[in-house]
Design a protein that fits this description.
alpha/beta; 8 helices; Aspartate Aminotransferase, domain 2; Aspartate Aminotransferase, domain 1; 3-stranded parallel sheet; binds pyridoxal-5'-phosphate; 2 domains
């Protein structure tokens, strides 16, 4: 029977996984292997991957250097917890803290997920400032913990019944490509910045613990307008503008075609 293996895998996925594990398309591709920019499904049909595993496979699928390094480490030492010092973690930290805009005094903290990175960033900001209130961006995707779901600026990813972490305010994303106000720079008079000022003044105590937003590498609209050459602009860690791709920095907006709903039935166990 045609595509029987794919059909069987999709059936098992529906049977065994929580329905909040959303997929692209009702009949998602059942993938088996990948090499560089190509993927193969379980029937051996090849696909050109434009998506890079939600931008996390930026060196291509099964990159031989990565694979060999993983195998070599797996044979040496795998898990000893961070209660001990190990060299590979420090070697990676050394590389990470050199990436700009990190400062020379930066310190690394490794997490297992974007959700945990966001949790840590918020905890650090609250510790450092002694303040509670957070300002996040509408349209952002933040992860699946209670805090991340409370910070989520996209209702499609929120469960209908969730415990909200208090003191989170949602600002308009300063995103000229898809302006929430339907305006164009500079005629907009930076409506989003004015709205942020009003949001802080009218809905917070003015003592913001953290503004959660990806730092933009884009030139300001003014710079872009003045430049004679067209500027191709990427949001940090995210795909080309408008791709709707994810990154691991809260505040990256998903404003293009909707990704699969994380809680399609309203309740993860429904
Ligand atoms: C902007 C952003 N923040 C946080 C996350 C959550 O990351 P994770 O699924 O690794 O917890 C994602 C994941 O897609 C993301 O795109």
């Amino acid at each position: 029977m045609e595509n029987a293996r794919s059909a069987e895998i999709r059936r098992k996925q529906r049977e065994l996984l929580f329905p909040n594990v959303g997929t692209y398309y009702q009949e998602p591709l059942a993938l088996e292997s990948g090499k560089g920019m190509f993927l193969k499904d379980v029937e051996g049909k090849e696909y050109l991957d434009f998506y890079g595993g939600i931008l996390t496979v930026s060196v291509g699928h099964c990159n031989p250097r990565v694979t060999e390094a993983v195998i070599a480490q797996q044979k040496k030492l795998v898990h000893v917890s961070t209660l001990y010092a190990t060299l590979p973690q420090l070697e990676l930290a050394e590389k990470v803290v050199q990436i700009r805009p990190m400062q020379e005094t930066a310190k690394a903290f490794f997490t297992n997920s974007g959700t945990e990175a966001n949790e840590t960033a918020v905890a650090l900001a609250k510790e450092a400032t002694g303040r509670q209130e957070l300002v996040v961006l509408r349209h952002n995707y933040a992860g699946r913990s209670t805090l991340a779901l409370s910070m989520m600026g996209n209702k499609n990813y929120r469960p209908k019944t969730q415990s909200e972490v208090p003191s989170i305010r949602f600002a308009h994303a300063p995103y000229c490509y898809r302006c929430d106000f339907g305006l164009k720079y500079p005629d907009c008079g930076v409506a989003c910045a004015k709205d942020l000022k009003s949001l802080i003044e009218t809905t917070t105590d003015g003592e913001i613990g953290a503004f959660m937003a990806a730092r933009s590498r884009c030139p300001s609209p003014a710079t872009t307008a003045a430049s004679s050459s067209p500027t191709r602009c990427r949001r940090p860690g995210a795909g080309p503008v408008g791709s709707g791709g994810a990154s691991s920095s809260t505040g990256s907006s998903r404003t293009s075609s909707p990704a699969p709903r994380a809680w399609p039935t309203g309740s993860p166990s429904a």
